[in-house]
Amino acid sequence: MQPVFSIAVRVYYEDTDAAGVVYYANYLKFMERARTEWLRAAGFELDALAQRDGVMFVVRSANLDFMKPARFNDAIHVDAAIGEHRGASITFAQRVRRADTVLCEGDIRIACVDSTTHAPRALPAALAARLKEISP
Q1: pLDDT tens digits, 5-25
Q2: pTM of the prediction?
Q3: Which residues are catalytically annotated?
Q4: Domain 5-134 belongs to what topology?
Q5: How many CB atoms lie within 10 A of CB 28?
């Protein structure tokens, strides 16, 4: 995976279990932060998309592989790269790594939905255009 975007995250005590290892569900939180920051860096704020375009994003599916544990106080990076994108969804290839060591990776598919009815909606035109510019 060639990272399109990466954020640095410090593992806090609250992210870990009693053994000092990151609790598995917290990898999803780290990945969510990276996707949100990717959108922000691309010029799209989630609250503005909801207010202006009447859309929000929900996770449709998540497929993760856990290779090695992250531990309390680790400095990790969370990468997000655009995979497939369709009319109403985007799939991100994501990794959590400590330096060059991949700890967890997976594909997260997010769906664009109406912010009121939660029915599927097409991606806003500006976001769809941006995806075409940067996608392989």
Answers
A1: 999 999 999 999 999 999 999
A2: 0.93
A3: 17
A4: Thiol Ester Dehydrase; Chain A (3.10.129)
A5: 16
